[in-house]
């Protein structure tokens, strides 16, 4: 979606956004604190909110048309169209299901009455399975919990047939495990079906797991726009909030966020007896192993074949389900401890040999940036530990943390 120039001035908010949404690169995240204007932005995109015309601003950007924003989709321009014609579907925070209909009837209603529904690439059976709502189909939607409503809401949006889905805090009522599964689903759908998503979230971790690009909005203004990796790296190394958000006097919601790393894991092997899954850190040549909680795959490995710290001999590292053979995880920097020696005599399951690439003092803590097989891992340690270990740039250390 190119050429997005928005200037809204109405009774409740001055929203001024001048950007393009690089949807073809992946999912776009929108971050900002409460009241920043995120939902208003989505409503404008979906033609559900009118913006006041400000011709001078539009002209400045080469726009002569009497339009507040331009959505260009497949070479067609959508200016001031009615919501029905707009290629963007807004999935609001509240599910707004028909309370007197069952879950299945709510889904069938979309297929029957949405003008776009014939374009949906999915069957109703597929979305039911993907969203994990098989057991809810005959329930009246009024009886659903908040998390269940959000699952059904997503299923309904997928069936709607519109190519761009705007998700306003879609998983806020779900636990972290369920959230990560649905975030992976969005990534998969974006990649496989070229379905485009803009997702509003209060959690940078959530956006790290799904988006390629993040817009940060504060007080109606776009204060940051950049690749997710760059933005999170900037956040992580900032010694104060004002450093993160140079365009605004406020902190844009960053102050509530913890520092974290995002790691890509591959080749899962279920250790069903231990309720763990063993993964490899991707792209490396050392076969470093990482353990996560729960047994996620269909392949299991027998007791006694463990070899912590390296791949066990003869271990077949293929998974039957290709979709689950790669996984992004986040790891809070304050959950990682460092040691100079490999210490396997501990309950910590994860031990990674790593190289120190950066040391940043942040208030009373030290943020140590590590390179582990090309991936970045952050460890937040105390000044005392830093002093005791006498860590230096370029040194090799061992990072330890419990199963993720
Ligand atoms: N219909 C309305 N009438 C009056 N004020 C409104 C209306 N809609 C939004 N606002 C105000 O506009 C501002 C931006 O609201 P918006 O819902 O876009 O914020 P947000 O970033 O999505 O917040 P949250 O994260 O809490 O959902 C808020 O101050 C809100 O109170």
CATH superfamily of the largest domain: P-loop containing nucleotide triphosphate hydrolases
**Strand fraction:** 25-35%
Report the CATH architecture of the largest domain: 3-Layer(aba) Sandwich
Radius of gyration: 23 Å
CATH fold call of the largest domain = Rossmann fold
Q: With helices defined by DSSP (H or I, 4 residues minimum), what is the helix count?
A: 10
Sheet with the most strands: spatial strand order = 6-7-8-3-9-10
Query: Can you give the mean pLDDT?
Result: 81
Characterize the main sheet.
6 strands, mixed
How many DSSP-defined strands?
19
Structural class: alpha+beta
Present as ligands are: adenosine-5'-triphosphate
Order of helices and strands: EEEHHEEEHHHEHEHEEHHEEEEEEEEHE
CATH class category of the largest domain: Alpha Beta
What is shown here, in short?
This protein has 404 residues and is of the alpha+beta class. It has helices spanning 38-45, 55-60, 103-113, 124-130, 146-159, 176-193, 204-210, 228-237, 241-244, 383-389, and strands at residues 4-9, 14-19, 27-31, 71-73, 76-78, 88-91, 164-168, 196-200, 211-218, 221-227, 260-271, 276-281, 289-293, 326-332, 337-339, 350-362, 365-372, 375-382, 396-401. The protein has 2 domains: 4-252, Rossmann fold, CATH 3.40.50; 261-401, OB fold (Dihydrolipoamide Acetyltransferase, E2P) (Beta Barrel), CATH 2.40.50.100.
């Amino acid at each position: 979606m190119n050429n997005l120039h928005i200037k809204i001035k109405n009774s409740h908010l001055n929203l001024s956004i001048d950007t393009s949404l690089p949807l073809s690169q992946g999912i776009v995240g929108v971050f900002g604190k409460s009241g920043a204007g995120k939902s208003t932005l989505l409503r404008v995109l979906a033609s559900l909110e009118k913006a006041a015309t400000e011709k001078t601003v539009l002209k400045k950007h080469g726009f002569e048309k009497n339009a507040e924003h331009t959505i260009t989709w497949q070479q067609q321009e959508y200016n001031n169209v009615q919501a029905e014609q707009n290629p963007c579907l807004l999935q609001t925070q509240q599910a707004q299901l028909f309370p007197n209909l069952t879950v299945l009837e709510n889904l069938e209603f979309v297929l029957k009455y949405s003008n776009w529904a014939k374009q949906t690439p999915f069957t109703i059976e597929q979305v039911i399975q993907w969203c994990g709502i098989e057991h809810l189909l005959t329930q009246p939607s009024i009886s659903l919990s908040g998390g269940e409503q959000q699952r059904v809401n997503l299923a309904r949006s997928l069936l709607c047939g519109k190519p761009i889905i705007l998700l306003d805090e879609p998983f806020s009522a779900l636990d972290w495990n369920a959230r990560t599964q649905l975030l992976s689903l969005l990534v998969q759908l974006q990649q496989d079906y070229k379905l485009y998503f803009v997702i509003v979230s209060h959690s940078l971790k959530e956006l790290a797991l799904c988006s390629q690009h993040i817009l940060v909005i504060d007080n109606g203004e776009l204060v940051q726009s950049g690749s997710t990796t760059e933005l999170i790296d900037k956040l992580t190394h900032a010694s104060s909030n004002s450093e993160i958000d140079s365009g605004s006097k406020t902190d844009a919601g960053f102050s509530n966020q913890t520092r974290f790393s995002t790691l890509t894991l591959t080749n899962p092997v279920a250790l069903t007896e231990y309720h763990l899954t063993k993964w490899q850190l991707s792209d490396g040549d050392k076969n470093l192993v990482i353990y996560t909680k729960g047994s996620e795959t269909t392949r299991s490995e027998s007791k006694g074949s463990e070899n912590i710290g390296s791949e066990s001999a003869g271990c077949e590292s293929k998974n039957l389900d290709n979709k689950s053979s790669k996984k992004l995880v986040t790891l809070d920097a304050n959950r990682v401890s460092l040691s100079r020696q490999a210490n396997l005599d501990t309950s910590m399951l994860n031990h990674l040999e790593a190289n120190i690439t950066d040391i940043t003092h942040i208030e009373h803590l030290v943020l140590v940036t590590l390179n582990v097989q090309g991936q970045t891992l952050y460890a937040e340690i105390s000044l005392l530990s830093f002093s005791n270990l006498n860590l230096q740039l370029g040194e090799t250390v061992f990072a330890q943390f419990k199963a993720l």
